[in-house]
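Assess this one:
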Amino acid sequence: MIVQYAIIWYLTKETGSATILSIATILGMLPMALLSPFVGPLVDRWNKKALLIVPDVVAAMLAIILSVSGGVFHVFPIWLIFVSLLMRSIAQTFQMPTIQSVIPTMVPDKELTKINGQLGMVQSANMIIAPALGAFLFAIIPLQYLILLDVLCAVLGICILIWVSIPNNEKIDAALQMLHNTKLGVQQLMHNKGLWYITITGAVFTLLYMPAASMYPLMTMKYFQGTVGQAGFIEALYSGGMLVGGAIIGIWGNWSDTMKPVIIAFFLVGIPTGLSGLLPGNQTGFMWFAILNVVEGIATPFFNTLLMAMIQQSYPPQQLGRILGVLNSLMSLTGPVGLIFAGPLADALGVEMLFVIAGIGTVICGIFALMIPLMRQYDIKLQARLAKED
């Protein structure tokens, strides 16, 4: 993540273009959107440890290629950075559903929400350190050497993972029919009406929110007239809020109705996001922007973390790969669609207007979730069904 942020700082500093940042973010999300439904059935069948290790090897190889290119040509071609971001995203498309499908095979059902919260805390801790450290190292170390951190981290991660025992699903004897399994995953998700509505609402939220989320560096450096260091500080504050949110879930996560905090989170993300776009474009506005980002950060983990726990409880482990593949695709596909318009809109209307649009849209998603009984009562009915099965 340090390397990822360093690349973003590089693109922001060198181009100052909202369109370039949008394209970079799209390339980071598109493989997840397009490939996830087809990757899901493979996750159900292939060796889980290999699916976690191979993406790290791919990321390390790409880092070496990018570093050598920067050293030889004394510049990083934008097209090569885009290719690197795309390939890293393809690798992560295999890794994410693998981690999500492994958790319920190693964790009791009643602890899933808390464990997902604790996993969110670890990820948030990474996100606190990465942007600030990325900005600091970007200022003192040439990018061609900074990129090689990917290689070091891949080696460390693989060495640790080799010793971990990861359960695989029971052998599936039926022939792999990719489109059939994907279709089955879509049907299973659509059949579960409450979860389907929650997924669609999450996809709409992603459509409206991602354009603003991709513009954080420009919001700080262009609208608030800040520095790379301040951009890293904002990312660290947001991630610090996420760490607090993950801690709340990890410690007190066994709620009787997890949809209540999910719905509240929509409002706690939407209102501060909308207000951020109305702040004055100076350092006073930046201070309020920082405070609002802490509130957003605290609320952010609730939707994804609690939704993941509900999905893991809704389906048996041997079916989770294809379900998560479809879900990740739906959640991810709307992001690039929004980002296609994000760059031109930000360049035309101003980056701050994307925050106003995202805030209003997120609040509307929260109102919709509150008004639909199948969504609002989903977890209560799920827990009643699980209790009956026990």
